[in-house]
Amino acid sequence: MEKLIHIGFGNIVNTGKIIAIVSPDSAPIKRMVQNAKEMGTVIDATQGRKTKAVLVMESSQVVLSALLPETIAGRAMNDSAENGEMQESDS
Q1: If you compute the radius of gyration of the chain from its CA atoms, what whole number of angstroms results?
Q2: Contact status, residue 62 vs residue 38, Cβ threshold 8 Å
Q3: Kind and range of the H or E element at 56?
Q4: How buried is residue 7: exposed, middle or buried, by Cβ count under 10 Å (0-12/13-18/19+)?
Q5: Closest to 13 in 3D by CA, of 63, 78, 54
Q6: Where does residue 40 fall: left (phi above 0), alpha (psi -120 to 50 degrees), or beta otherwise?
Q7: Residue 49 three-state SS
Q8: Which of 5, 23, 27, 46 is found 20 to 30 A from 34 (Cα to Cα)?
Q9: How far apart are CA 22 and CA 70, in angstroms?
Q10: What whole-number distance in Å separates Cα of residue 7 and Cα of residue 64?
Q11: What does the pLDDT look like over 58-68, one tens digit per residue?
């Protein structure tokens, strides 16, 4: 089973479907978000706050989060490390 991580304000995503977690500041990322909005594939999980991270998903969806990319990546890494330790101890 894939792990789920909290991306802020009660919103949760599947770590197995994340391709990239990037900052929204660069022009290419801003264009990608704008194109995704036009196509209707944006999931805005910011609750009206400033977007600080953009998660690119396998399904070509773009998820906007108000948490920093480092925070989300850290949570994903912690979950995968804990999952790895649990699997090793189970065998």
Answers
A1: 14
A2: no
A3: strand 53-57
A4: buried
A5: 63
A6: left
A7: coil
A8: 5
A9: 9
A10: 9
A11: 999 999 999 99
**The token pair that represents 53 in the structure block:** 């991270």
Q: Which residues contact 11 (CB under 8 A, 6 or more apart)?
A: 45, 65
- What the block records as the tokens of 16 is 């197995």
10 compared with 85, residue with greater pLDDT? 10
Beta carbons within 10 angstroms of residue 8's beta carbon: 19
Sign of the CA dihedral with 89 first, then 4, 49, and 41 last: positive
Beta bridge partners of 65: 53
Predicted TM-score of the model (pTM): 0.86
> Token pair for residue 46?
């910011």
Q: What is the pLDDT of residues 27-69, one digit of tens each?
A: 999 999 999 999 999 999 999 999 999 999 999 999 999 999 9
Residue whose pair of structure tokens reads 């699997």 in the numeric block: 87
